[in-house]
Amino acid sequence: MAQMTMIQAITDALRIELKNDENVLVFGEDVGQNGGVFRATEGLQDQFGEDRVFDTPLAESGIGGLAFGLAMQGFRPVPEIQFFGFVYEAMDAISGQIARIRYRSGGTQNAPITIRSPFGGGVHTPELHADSLEGLMAQQPGLKVVIPSTPYDAKGLLLASIRDNDPVVFLEHMKLYRSFRAEVPEEEYTIELGKADVKREGSDVTLVAYGAMVHSCLKAAEELEKDGIQAEVIDLRTVMPIDFETVLKSVEKTNRVVVVQEAQRQAGMASHIIAEIQEKAILHLEAPVLRVAAPDTVYAFTQAEEVWLPNYNDIIERVNQVINF
């Protein structure tokens, strides 16, 4: 196995699918010769040519419309929204066209589109660049929403997303791009969409998270272990659809749950997850399901970012509340 960062694993997945399927097209702002703002597509245009990997104008609405049109002509587009905070310009194409086409056509047409985009805080980006908008996507029927937390997951999930016949929004947390390396198989493999992963076994409380917050949960679990609390950490990996089977199995074992997200309390996926847990497993709960989230404000400017974002200490505080309820 090779040691890869998340960005290298993503590039590797794109290279594999461009090689495997001539209908796969990669496009977006500066993804060609420049290799993308984070170099996720570095070297791909040289290898596969300008007809397969190409730049678009700085217009997300055009990127969304182009992706939909190409999908209707038999291609498998992999467009990049340079930062996900700019997705609003493409919402008509995504929600009004891409997400609906299979239903609208009675199952005769699909939109096998994988929309890649970086998001997430902790790296001091300008305004609109770090917003967590996964909840907005997950509330649109017809879309799958994937958020990997490790290089291994990123490669396997991206390959599965590109091969999926339904549209996928594939969100990549910027802080995880180069923050660590991990073992990733050099050959191709896929990870089933809609299947969570238990990143750490535990018996006293279940921590449910996705993206960068998975690592905050793992750090919190290490600290909690010093006090004799064994926390189980579940990485959803796919936030639509959600693998509630794995979540509920853990809840039945630990009887206490904290749901963790980077998004604001009113946004993200925590509210949906909590509602499902309390509908389906309330008799297994020994305490209310609590959550860790950012405040219900516009994303803070960089000077206040570290104060605004949830961290592992916030998780520990919530865990102690459910343990001592």
Automatic annotation (TrEMBL):
<feature type="domain" description="Transketolase-like pyrimidine-binding">
    <location>
        <begin position="4"/>
        <end position="179"/>
    </location>
</feature>
<dbReference type="GO" id="GO:0016491">
    <property type="term" value="F:oxidoreductase activity"/>
</dbReference>
<dbReference type="InterPro" id="IPR005475">
    <property type="entry name" value="Transketolase-like_Pyr-bd"/>
</dbReference>
<protein>
    <submittedName>
        <fullName>Alpha-ketoacid dehydrogenase subunit beta</fullName>
        <ecNumber>1.2.4.-</ecNumber>
    </submittedName>
</protein>
<dbReference type="Pfam" id="PF02779">
    <property type="entry name" value="Transket_pyr"/>
</dbReference>
<dbReference type="InterPro" id="IPR029061">
    <property type="entry name" value="THDP-binding"/>
</dbReference>
<keyword id="KW-0560">Oxidoreductase</keyword>
<dbReference type="InterPro" id="IPR009014">
    <property type="entry name" value="Transketo_C/PFOR_II"/>
</dbReference>
<dbReference type="InterPro" id="IPR033248">
    <property type="entry name" value="Transketolase_C"/>
</dbReference>
<keyword id="KW-0786">Thiamine pyrophosphate</keyword>
<dbReference type="Pfam" id="PF02780">
    <property type="entry name" value="Transketolase_C"/>
</dbReference>
